Amino acid sequence: MQPIQSVSWSPDGEALRILDQRELPAREVVRDLVGVDEIADAIRTLAIRGAPAIGVGAAIGLAAAIARASHGDGGTARRLLPGFAAQLAGTRPTAVNLSWAMNRMLACAHSTGDDRLLDALRAEATAIADEDAVMCRRIGEHGVSLLSDGMRVLTHCNAGALATSGIGTALAPVYVALERGMHVHVYASETRPLRQGARLTAWELARAGVQVTIIPDSAAAALMSAGEVELVIVGADRIARNGDTANKIGTYAHAISAQRHGIPFHVAAPWSTIDAGTPDGRGIVVEHRAADELGEVPAGAAVWNPAFDVTPVSLVTSFITDRGIHEARGAAGPELFTS
Amino acid sequence: MQPIQSVSWSPDGEALRILDQRELPAREVVRDLVGVDEIADAIRTLAIRGAPAIGVGAAIGLAAAIARASHGDGGTARRLLPGFAAQLAGTRPTAVNLSWAMNRMLACAHSTGDDRLLDALRAEATAIADEDAVMCRRIGEHGVSLLSDGMRVLTHCNAGALATSGIGTALAPVYVALERGMHVHVYASETRPLRQGARLTAWELARAGVQVTIIPDSAAAALMSAGEVELVIVGADRIARNGDTANKIGTYAHAISAQRHGIPFHVAAPWSTIDAGTPDGRGIVVEHRAADELGEVPAGAAVWNPAFDVTPVSLVTSFITDRGIHEARGAAGPELFTS
Questions:
Q1: Most buried residue, A182, A209, A214, A293, by CB count within 10 Å?
Q2: Which of 186-215 (B) contact A at CB < 8 A?
Q3: Mind giving me the DSSP string for A107-154?
Q4: Which residues of A touch B218 (CB under 8 A)?
Q5: Quick check: pTM over 0.90?
């Protein structure tokens, strides 16, 4: 079975089609959205999540919503565009891909006449989706060289098909391996507090026919000690110029344990994740999330709930990008990524 | 405020009084139990949990249930005793303290005449509870020497007052510090899947006036990297002769991270936790628990849910026992514990 499609055009080309991630893993609910309010709501409430998927979903959603609301009139579409784009961009203000996608759509409109505007927006949204899918596939094709039949791989959080418009980033090599007839056994760590590993990674892999086992985050070190992990692949939210990598909280602990057990630790991400403006991990600001994500808290107790942590490049074996595999371990200087 | 009492005699001396841990942290529910069925049920459903507390609770419960059911008649009591003890021992077959406590009660009965039997059982149960509380206090008084005012301490799971009839094991030094006017800030890792850290440790510490912050298990390494942890103290389920320590899943990951960050890692446990029959960690069998503890699992996905892991003695700084503090790091030979 093919990996699922988290965001796409509806078959009639009139709406944004999403797989509602709020309903997973209990129910596989597909929704076609065409109103800007319902699209904004889907992003805000995590029906669509994963930075690349949010950007793609907002771009397709913007094109679909403008076409419907303008009744096909280019002048009306141009008047509606800035407000619709700002509404969608405001739903997740920290998601870089989202504002990037909205700016790209606005730039497209700026260079197009009213008569061709709706077609141009539609084509630009499709291009954003297609480029994302191509990037995923390239990561998968480079990364599959690190896998072998029967290999046991640990991943964290969800950097799969649900987080992109393609076959994911960290999971892309696993899907390409599957296409080539290789059987990879994936261990998905639960990823507290929101359980993206248990809810989403396990769901999409099992659905695609990949053998997957959920573990508590705290069990990864014991699993490695038992000799059950041969490779770790995780995604990335931001990579500093020296290779220090911000990713979902818990990634750093997995990297420390992997080093202790001599297990290769790979980061899979599009080249665009490398932040040339940040020299090293000290410059990455860690976002903190609400206490109630952790569930019921006793009166008088506080909660420390960071969204991600920073894994130093010294713990990373390689970066699997759409441009190829970049060795990291033993990187000599501060400028791992200079181009 | 004093630490809570998880198991004790009821004030009238007729029943087992428990603080129902199923209701925590939402409600503080005290129950007086006197029927053997309801006592067995309380242990089986984790209203009483923590190996020392289970042993104490079963001993007091046995004495109370026998007194009630025999209407004070020694001969009847003796006839009922083996069945009641077996019923309680069978509730948690792997809990060593439970069978140990039941055997001790049976041995007491064996050496006592019918006329004094009920008083002897009552006295023996009280002795088991008192010895446990004394053991906790000794651990606390030895361990407090490792703490200082304002210190930030990480612990895992619940090895506190709720798990014993006294002030706990890993938390005992914190309570003694509090008595002496020192303010220790405890970070309690959540402890998936059953959340004993977030539900129980945070609750009992906050109630006693200790500053406590809950973190996801996966955030401990990031917390250490941020310089927020000066000391780690955990309990132990079993300690091999060489010092390898079985404790709640996640302990090993914390120990690996502590070593990387140069943070002392201490194990607090009664001397009776040392298993002289097990030379090292390889001999400790890891119990696996039900998949559904982790919550909803997607169709087709498996779950790996071990109850504990084994931390090698090389990662342990010292053992805080009722007999004193035993240095571990740099232990030269396989026989750390020979007496």
A1: A214
A2: 187-193, 195, 198-199, 202-203, 205-207, 211-215
A3: HHHHTS-GGGHHHHHHHHHHHHHHHHHHHHHHHHHHHGGG--TT-EEE
A4: 189, 191-192, 217-218, 249-250, 253
A5: yes
